[in-house]
Amino acid sequence: MKFPEWMASVQRRVEQALEQRLPAAQLAPQRLHQAMRYATLGGGKRVRPLLAFAAGEMAGATPERLDAIACALESIHVYSLVHDDMPCMDDDVLRRGKPTVHVQYDEATALLVGDALQTLAFEQLSTLGLFEDAGNQLRAVALLAKASGSRGMAGGQAIDLDSVGKSITREELEFMHIHKTGALIRAAVMLGALAGTTDDATLERLNHFGKCIGLLFQVVDDILDEVADTATLGKTAGKDAAQDKPTYVSIIGLTPARTLARELAEEAHGTLAPLGAAAQRLKEITDYIVSRPF
Ligand code: GRG
């Protein structure tokens, strides 16, 4: 199967899995469940699920097992977007082409949607029999918890909020992004691999690949933001805080950021090279991520 076809089939599969695993809209409390579904369904590239499927297929994990893992990852990701969009953080009114949850519902609901999606993720991941090996399942739960918490995504977000209007070094920016965006992307690769059978050397290799691709994702995101801003002559209205945030482009410049993206993609490919054809999908996802802005 060609990559675009594979990607579309995983995206469809994940949409269906999320649809089934999210509490029904008719189930009380209806407003909260409707808002959880509103936030999660019908949008997004599903990059983290794609990475989990790619690594999981490589490790021989069944698609049914990967469905649950993909849902756990996407639930954490959506929770982070819903909270990130709130007035106390980035104060965004649009996400995935529709009004953000606090705009469509209200702030308290948005807070609860994030909370409930986060715990739903761990409920999914701890389903009995989801992993061949109970030790690997516990490892996956711990990995996702760490990647989401203060030593991962939430920690990166805290640094991000603290850096508004300040000048930070390239090293500090990298530290922030490895945590804020990179940790969950890295966890996606690792969780997929843990759902199948993978030796420790390969897991270590995938861990390094995850680190490269997590950072790559953010560098590309910064480039895309810059290119979009330039095209629309600046997103001035209502985005002051986000505009003052340091990015790869603001710290090292657009051309060096593009060079960095290429270098990170090369490092990701180099890390996967010894895995041969088994890592084909991971290589294709790397190219998909890096090719977006160029
Ligand atoms: C609130 C704890 C907490 C964390 C928020 C990830 C994050 C941390 C905030 C998102 C803000 C943001 C726009 C970050 C830049 C990179 C990024 C994660 C973009 C959104 O992810 P995509 O492109 O989105 O995968 P889709 O909609 O495709 O799922």
What are the main properties of this structure?
mainly alpha, two-stranded antiparallel sheet, globular, binds geranylgeranyl diphosphate, Prenyl_diphosphate_synthase, (2E,6E)-farnesyl diphosphate synthase activity, Polyprenyl_synt_CS, metal-binding, isoprene biosynthesis
Structural commentary:
The protein is built from 14 helices and 2 strands; from the N terminus they run ααααββαααααααααα. It is mainly alpha-helical and 294 residues long. The protein has a single domain, classed as Farnesyl Diphosphate Synthase (Orthogonal Bundle). Strands 1-2 form a two-stranded antiparallel ribbon. A hairpin with a 2-residue loop joins β1 (94-95) and β2. It is globular and about 50 Å long. Residues 234-241 have low confidence and may be disordered. The structure holds geranylgeranyl diphosphate. The site of geranylgeranyl diphosphate has 16 residues, from α4, α8, α9 and α10.
Summarize the biggest pleated sheet: 2 strands, antiparallel
Measured distance between first and last alpha carbons: 25 Å
**Overall outline:** globular
Order of helices and strands: HHHHEEHHHHHHHHHH
Q: Segments where pLDDT lies below 50 for 5+ residues?
A: 234-241
InterPro entries: Isoprenoid_synthase_dom_sf, Polyprenyl_synt, Polyprenyl_synt_CS, Prenyl_diphosphate_synthase
Enzyme class: transferase
Organism: Uliginosibacterium silvisoli
Pfam family, one: polyprenyl_synt
